[in-house]
From TrEMBL:
Chief location of this protein within or outside the cell: membrane
Family recorded in the similarity comment: Belongs to the peptidase M50B family.
Domain of life: Bacteria
Pfam families in the cross-refs: Peptidase_M50
Alphabetical list of SUPFAM superfamilies matching this protein: PDZ domain-like
Listed transmembrane segments: 104-124, 379-400
Record InterPro entries: PDZ_sf, Pept_M50_Zn, Peptidase_M50
Protein name, per record: Zinc metalloprotease Rip1
Signal peptide interval: none
Residues of the Peptidase M50 domain: 10-364
Gene3D superfamilies: 2.30.42.10
Organism of derivation: Antrihabitans spumae
Cofactor: Zn(2+)
Statement: the UniProt record of this protein carries the keyword Lyase: no
Length: 407
């Protein structure tokens, strides 16, 4: 029940983010004298609407976004004669840019507010700090593993337990290799034979514990082909968990500069993730066709909502909030891309018209006509088709092979 509640709450959070994005466009347009004909949350059949002044506000049946209908957003729009002077495409460049960027700004503001809530309520994690890997459990080592990941039964104590590894021990080295994640520890352990030196931090002490590695059968993922294969590897029978540095909690006043700095770090990571999206197609395809799902691959609304539900089920509301904040930063950054039909594409057209008209003015020529969007339709269709295919691939991966962030 808590999982379902978390999924619903996260989905509502996404819907609210999109609705507020469109509110940013609407409020800016109304403030700058443009006519907003309609503002709706959702798509599809109309559930209800109400007329307030010259704007129709309403709700549609499918809660997957929303839209704000500004009269004359492009020269192709049909407008009434009385709307001509207030048509968006006839306004000054700065006004058009303010309207188109206000939705993006709304996502950034909402993300910042969520980070402020996180800073005061739970504390901000250190995004630039090195993560650590700790022992969560110690048990026997299963001799074999089925292809679906199921381990064979075992009994007694395992190598790690016999050597003295304890839950909460932080593993900092395997032999001479520094380890920051559970993947690092597993990689070094699986390739080892004989006695391996585990350097651990236990409270204020740093200990070196020799562990006799057992050789067992496991299914592993080939790094190049992304295919599973059965191998004999080393194992010591301990559960592992990777965690970042402890979060720092702030009061409402000190949270402001801390949240600004944290938001800057998140924005850099968002841009990096955005730049990596094309290279993740192969990883998504492997996930859909049965390979292991890379946790760094993009997720759809469905996948994000499922992770939000998992976080709520386990009481990780800080993870829930930071995931929703990350989504808002991503929506804002994605819409900045200079591609139609994104906001950034419309902004690029507006800037182009301004530069072109300035050059024409220097030559004593009148301003040129609005950009013919019909000529841009082929490029727009390409963006829509590629974007739609990418979204479908991500959605499929989230359904057949979802990301598992929690043990």
């Amino acid at each position: 029940m808590v999982f379902v509640l978390g999924v619903v709450l996260f989905a509502l959070g996404i819907a609210a983010s999109v609705a507020l994005h469109e509110c940013g466009h609407m409020w800016a347009a109304q403030r700058l004298g443009m006519k907003v004909r309609r503002y709706f949350v959702g798509f599809g059949p109309k559930v209800f609407s109400v007329q307030r002044g010259e704007t129709e506000y309403g709700l549609k049946a499918l809660p997957f976004g929303g839209f704000c209908d500004i009269a004359g957003m492009t020269a192709l729009d049909e407008i009434e004669p009385e709307e001509l002077d207030r048509a968006m495409y006839r306004q000054k460049t700065w006004k058009r840019l303010v309207v188109m960027s206000s939705g993006i700004a709304m996502n950034f503001v909402l993300g910042f507010i969520l980070i402020m809530v996180l800073a005061v309520g739970w504390g901000l994690p250190n995004l630039n700090g090195d993560p650590t890997v700790s022992v969560t459990s110690a048990s026997c080592v299963a001799p074999t593993q089925a292809e679906d990941g199921t381990l064979a039964e075992c009994s007694g104590t395992g190598p790690g337990q016999r050597a003295g590894l304890l839950p909460s021990d932080v593993i900092v080295k395997v032999n001479d290799v520094t380890t920051h994640t559970s993947t690092d520890v597993v990689k070094e352990t699986q390739s080892a034979t004989g006695i391996v030196q585990f350097t651990v931090e236990r409270g204020d002490e740093t200990l070196t514990i020799p562990v006799q590695v057992e050789r067992v059968q496991r299914w592993v993922i080939d790094n190049e082909t992304k295919e599973k294969r059965s191998e004999t590897v080393g194992a010591i029978g301990v559960g592992l968990n990777t965690a970042g540095p402890a979060p720092t909690q702030y009061n409402p006043l000190s949270a402001i500069p801390a949240s600004v700095a944290f938001t800057g770090d998140m924005f850099v990571k968002t841009l990096h993730g955005l730049a990596q999206m094309p290279s993740k197609v192969v990883d998504l395809w492997h996930a859909v066709t049965g390979g292991e799902r890379d946790p760094e691959t993009p997720i759809s609304v469905v996948g994000a909502s499922a992770i939000g539900g998992q976080a709520a089920e386990r009481g990780y509301w800080d993870t829930f909030i930071i995931l929703l904040a990350s989504l808002n930063f991503f929506l804002g950054a994605f819409n900045l891309l200079p591609l139609l039909p994104l906001d950034g594409g419309h902004m690029a057209v507006t800037i182009y018209e301004k530069i072109r008209n300035s050059l024409r003015s220097r030559r004593g020529l009148p301003a040129g006509p609005p950009v013919d969007y019909l000529k841009l339709l082929p490029a727009t269709y390409v963006v829509i088709v590629i974007g739609g295919a990418y979204m479908l691939l991500t959605l499929t991966a989230d359904i057949v092979n979802p990301i598992q962030l929690f043990p």
